[in-house]
Amino acid sequence: MWPLPIAYLLFIAGVCAAIATTPEPGAEQVRAIIRATAFTSAVPFLLLFVASPLQRLRPSAASRWLIRNRRYLGLSVAASHFWHLIAIVVLVRTFSSGGAGIATLTKIFGSAGFVLLAAMAATSNDASQRALGRGWGWLHVVGVYVLWIDFIFTYSGTATIAPFHGVMTLLFAVAWMARVVAFMDTRRT
């Protein structure tokens, strides 16, 4: 299923190019790319985040497909977030005061999210999984939850003024609840 993340990388590149190639590209186009790539990262992330709970709670052909393709969904998140990072760097370096207006907590969790996502993408292969053993599992669990925190706080921060962000916040909250319910179901059995 390697074509999935490669196709996603190219698709997102096309979306970014379509936004950036306006007659007079500027900060607003870069911000639009940041918003678009946040969403295009959130979609595959939500799918991989709920794969295990869905398989545990409601096994189906769709949940089995999600389980089999979590690696490629994760690499699709990384592909989209690659463009997200580029847009953030362009915005900070070209159109603002070096990131001075970005909250410290956002810098910390955002940076940790990018570092962990890169580490997860680099180790998303069988050889790394074997070499890292249990460390591989810890890296991916911690990384997924840091990314979940990044996403939910990003969307919830403007949920009251942007209805779409409210919907995304709700989806991330429901995805977390699905994990909690699946965990409780596992403990019960």
Task: Give a verbal description of the structure.
The protein has one domain. It is globular. It has 189 residues and is mainly alpha-helical. The longest helix has 31 residues, at 27-57. The chain has helices spanning 3-20, 27-57, 61-68, 70-95, 104-122, 126-132, 134-156, 163-188. The protein contains eight helices and no strands. 84% of the residues lie in helices and 0% in strands. Helix 1 packs parallel to helix 4 and helix 4 crosses helix 5 (104-122).
Category from helices, strands and their pairing: mainly alpha
Provide the low-confidence segments as ranges.
none
Largest sheet, in brief, is: none
- Number of DSSP strand runs: 0
State the main characteristics:
single chain, about 190 residues, mainly alpha, 8 helices, about 85% helix, about 0% strand, globular
List the helices and strands and how they pair.
Elements: H1 3-20, H2 27-57, H3 61-68, H4 70-95, H5 104-122, H6 126-132, H7 134-156, H8 163-188
Helix pairs in contact: 1-2, 1-4, 2-3, 2-4, 2-8, 4-5, 5-7, 6-7, 7-8
Quick synopsis:
It is built from 8 helices and no strands.
